[in-house]
Amino acid sequence: MIVKLLKKPIFSLYKLTIDPKNQQAFLAEGVNNLITSYQNESGTLMMVATHEDEAGSVNYIFEMYQDDASYQIHAASPQFQHYAKLAQKVVQSKEIHKLSLERLHTSNQPLEIKGENPYFVRLLEVTVNHNNVKFLKNISKNTVANLVSSVDSNY
Q1: pTM here?
Q2: What's the distance, Cα to Cα, between the start and end of the chain in Å?
Q3: Radius of gyration of the CA atoms of the chain, in A
């Protein structure tokens, strides 16, 4: 699937903490939601889920939608409604970060990875004042760190 974006997509990071005893049910519903959404919703550009710890109690979900209409289609979907119902019961804490996509490099081949795999993600959170944003972008221009940023809307 090749999508030409005319404006920045909606890009979010969710940090969800659950009790490890609920991890299997949470994982099953989450995988169903992510895969079904990606396969059936053309405006759902990316969905990635991972966890911080072996028990799966601290979870990170990255979602990218072509626009708000695409997000609304996802939010109304049966698989998301089913997932949301479970999440309301098992999520103990939630953080939502709206991200601003700066640069994205992809191949023309769709990528779908399910189940146990050798891949890992390192998430580095950096806080800089507005005067240093340009400097940070410059030093990270050839790294994955430049893919996303969360910029304070006051600047």
Answers
A1: 0.75
A2: 35
A3: 16
Residue with tokens 């799966």: 56
Q: Give the pLDDT confidence of 14-73 residue by residue, as tens digits.
A: 999 999 999 999 999 999 999 999 899 999 998 988 888 888 899 999 999 999 999 999
Question: Which residue is it, tokens 């098992």?
Answer: 90
CA distance 31 to 33: 5
Cα 66 to Cα 44, 96, 109, 123, distances in angstroms = 6, 18, 18, 23
Q: Are 147 and 102 in contact (CB under 8 A)?
A: yes
How far is it, in rounded angstroms, from Cα 88 to Cα 97?
A: 19
Contact between residue 26 and residue 59 where contact means Cβ atoms under 8 Å apart: yes
Q: In terms of Cα–Cα distance, which of 61, 74, 67, 56 is closest to 9?
A: 67
Domains recognised in the chain with CATH numbers? 8-101 (3.30.70.100), 124-155 (no CATH)
